[in-house]
Write a structure and sequence with these properties.
Layout (H helix, E strand, L loop, with lengths): L8 H6 L11 H10 L3 H21 L7 H40 L7 H36 L15 H6 L7 H6 L13 H8 L1
Helix pairs in contact: 4-5
């Protein structure tokens, strides 16, 4: 029987010992986790940025007339309002006269020819329609004054560009640029121009 070989304590001590892999520290794991965001978190962050940008754009238009120019338009609108109020006063007096005349005629003091009665009715209806039109115009003038106060007057509600000054002077209640009103499109260069339809067609050809 062959004798068993003995392993000396010295040879066991010289054998290499494999070390276990080091565990990452808690600090490094938390840093790595915070550096990588989930898709949901990234989407929420992007949506928040977009919302803030939209709110900022709506709060203040990118273009507007200066305070001096807005004051010029204010004076134009106030003068137009004074003139309209005077016209409205005269029309209301005219309507009162027509109504009073109709009341006297119906009372039997004197009678009108049927043709004259028809003329009076038409005149009364026309006066009433003019009063309604001027009342609506006054309301729009007041709305224009409010737009001057919040510094949005003269900005086209379709194109977002400045309405041409000559158009605002002629139609102070307008909220549409000449480009949109006449041609139903916004100018590519962002400048409102009053170009007749026949000239615009010639430019397109």
């Amino acid at each position: 029987m062959a004798p068993r070989k003995r392993t000396s304590a010295r040879s066991k001590a010289t054998q290499p010992v494999e070390s276990a892999p080091a565990k990452p520290s808690r600090k490094s794991r938390s840093a790595k986790t915070s550096a990588v965001q989930s898709p949901e978190a990234e989407a929420t962050s992007a949506q928040k940025v977009a919302t803030e940008a939209t709110a900022s754009a709506q709060a203040a238009p990118r273009v507007r007339y200066s305070d001096e120019e807005l004051e010029e338009f204010r004076q134009i609108i106030l003068a137009e309002k004074r003139k309209t109020l005077e016209e409205l006063r005269l029309l209301r007096e005219r309507l009162e006269d027509l109504n009073a005349f109709n009341y006297i005629e119906e009372g039997g003091i004197f009678s009108l020819h049927p043709a004259e009665q028809g003329t009076e009715a038409v005149e009364r209806e026309r006066t009433y329609a003019q009063i309604q039109r001027l009342t609506t115009y006054l309301r729009k003038l007041d709305e224009a004054l409010k737009r001057i106060d919040n510094k949005t007057y003269g900005i086209c509600r379709k194109c977002g560009i400045l309405i041409a000054k000559e158009r605002l002077r002629a139609v102070p209640i307008t909220t549409l640029s000449a480009s949109w009103k006449i041609h139903h499109r916004c100018p590519e260069d962002g400048i409102d121009r009053i170009i007749p339809i026949h000239q615009a067609k010639a430019l397109q050809e």
